[in-house]
Amino acid sequence: MQEATLSFKARAQEALADPTLKIAIDRTTGTAERKRAVAMTQFPQFEAARERGKRIKDHVIANLDHYLLEFERNAIASGAKVHWARTAEEASQIVVRLCKEAGAKRVTRVKSMLGEEIGLPHALDEAGIERVETDLAEHIVQLGGDRPSHIVWPSMHRTREQVSEMFKRLHRAPHQEETIEAMVDSARRELRDKFLTADVAISGANFLVADTGATCTVTNEGNAELTTTPPRVHIVTAGIEKLVPSTEHALLLLRLLVRSATGADVTQYTTFHCGPKQTGDRDGPEEFHIVLVDNGRTRMLREGMKDMLRCIRCGACMNHCVVFRQLGGHVYGGTYPGPMGAVLTPVFDGLESSRDLPHACTMNGKCQEVCPVAIPLPTLLRGWRDRSWREGLEPATVRFGLGIHTFVASRPRLYRLGTAIAIRVMRLFSRGGLVKGMPGLGAWTAYREFPAPAKRTFMEMYKDQEKGQ
Amino acid sequence: MSARETILNAVRSGLGNTAVDPAAVRRDADALLQDLPSIRPALLADGLVDAFIARVTSPKVAATAERIASASELPAAVGRYLEAFGLPAVVALQPAAPLQDLDWSGFELHDKVAPDEMIAIGVARWGIAETGSLVFHSGADTPILANFLPLHHLVMVRADTILPFLDDYAAATAGQRPPRNVNIVTGASGTTDIEGSLVLGAHGPRFLHVVIVGTPDSSE
Q: Which residues of chain B lie closer than 8 angstroms to A27, CB-CB?
């Protein structure tokens, strides 16, 4: 899932120059941050719950083969068919094949980041199958012909004005009133009959429950159940790290997931799907397929990235990331944006094409602090930086610059001389205590001022003080 | 080698090819469910029913609730609700005995929920005080779509089926054969997908009204 040919830096420039993007990002991430903070004050047991959540995920990963087999056994016993996919391509091929075997003309989809990761929207379009995204945000993304920019709010990059324009142009009976309520209603009308006339439903899973063989989806709109119930076939695609031992473990993690994602205590709809329709059931699909996807996860296990397999895809790390909140999600170029995306994209796309991502981080540690399963994201990002350096992927300019820095910094006299000159030169360019522009400092001063340095360096002042004593 | 074998082998080698003792895994998994009170949020009130109602009607869940002494009072409660909204007495009634057995004279009933159904009445198997949730199991008398298609969803739940916490539901059903769907429903359908602002009635119900019957120790 490569973004265009533009480099990360060029994409970042574009995003920073976009006048509406920053407004759109702030409206959503600001609300998410505030609501999460309130939820934390109402749940003082969060720290203990977080530690437990971390241990549950670690336990599953440490026994992943055991749980995969237990899940498979129970899923088959419930009437499900289980498929295994090594790669994104293999996973997409399985889903497309199942759709074709079902004679599917129209497929409804529940938002699933794994579906995006394996390129499912594209694969279905290529196969000529009509794909209907039913999550409101994914519906907006589909109408706009672009890509999700956040894992919880995929259309976060769109303002209400842009959404209104699209709905008016593309919906059969669009809203008349310029309110968000009226726009939501317009989407409700537009999608109603599509839910009920689809041939195949495709969803992801927030949890795979080993001791029942059930998959779990969480939504606030109710689109998951409206999607997965009417069609004859329901297909689930899920990463192998989504396993939990039991429903009880899943519900403990649910408390962490929802508070971290939206600040609510629980999603409006939490549904466990176990096998196809049972004898006597009034509704539900006749066929239920589960595709278990590796796509780099076993490599993460092997290559020291086990911690990242705890991720429950809540999006808190990006909502609290100073870089994400300036740039939005598209700049990251991969399926997953923000800090977790900067860790995952090099796994999926290779480090060579994504080596800028681990650098797009201030190391302020906020992501790790808010992560509901305590993933050491800054450490993992530093690991990628380290690897990029060792593999010689850093450009010559960076290597040269760091070489000079090393040379100077390891020679104290030279370093002191250099800094003494530098601060004096910088003061020549300062106005009112701020440097607003200076040759060689353009990359910094293009977007913000640089505070004017002190008159003398710390070492100069320190020496004087020593002499005075 | 099949994809299945490749993945399982890669998992095993990634974990250092250590032998798995299923009994030990089970013990570890159970240990992670110990001392649950230390990782649960507090309930909003002392009594289970009060805590449940407080949560259901809290701004976060934003549903409405009322109590009745016995199920026989449900049709009258539904009548009052419809009147308050100025809605006709035409309702989809879940084909479950506790509802079908009541006296619905004055109502026009059907059991198939239409795509644009205005009002549906259902019965939940459990309530959960922690979150104000209702739990449904799909089955012969519980169509899944009945919880999602109507605009107004009215749900009866017996006070003696209200459980304190989410994990109590899991413990209560552990070891049983799960239905096709377990639907845990908390409030009406909502979305925050346009600029993060909450709008109700996204695809599912816009209004959820919960009717609690009896008391926790009544055995109706």
A: 195-196
Instruction: Determine contact: A220 vs chain B, CB below 8 A.
Output: yes
What is the C-alpha separation between A400 and A397, in angstroms, rounded? 5
Decide if A229 and B144 are in contact by the 8 Å CB cutoff: yes
Q: Tell me if A261 sits within 8 A of B193, measured CB to CB.
A: no
- Residue whose entry in the numeric block shows the structure tokens 């449940």: B52
Rounded-to-integer distance, Cα A166 and Cα B211, Å: 40
Residues of chain B with CATH 3.40.50.10420: 44-213
What is the CATH architecture assignment of B44-213? 3-Layer(aba) Sandwich (3.40)
Q: Is A353 on the interface with B (CB under 8 A)?
A: no
Question: Do the Cβ atoms of A292 and A68 come closer than 8 Å?
Answer: yes
Checking DSSP bridges between strand A434-435 and strand A450-451, what pairing results, if any? antiparallel
**What is the rounded CA–CA span in Å between residue A386 and residue A287?**
47
Do residues A352 and A4 lie in contact, with contact meaning Cβ atoms separated by under 8 Å? no
How far apart are the C-alpha atoms of B200 and B160, rounded to whole Å? 29
Which amino acid makes up residue B23? Answer: A
Poorest-pLDDT segment among A19-33, A68-82, A229-243, B55-69: A19-33
CA triple A293-B178-B51, angle to 5 deg: 105
Q: Does A59 touch chain B (CB under 8 A)?
A: yes
pLDDT tens profile B147-177 = 999 999 999 999 999 999 999 999 999 999 9
Contact between residue A201 and residue A228 where contact means Cβ atoms under 8 Å apart: yes
pLDDT of residue B101: 96
Same domain, A67 and A199: yes
Q: Which phi and psi angles does A142 have, rounded to 5°? A: -65, -45
A415 touches chain B (CB under 8 A): no
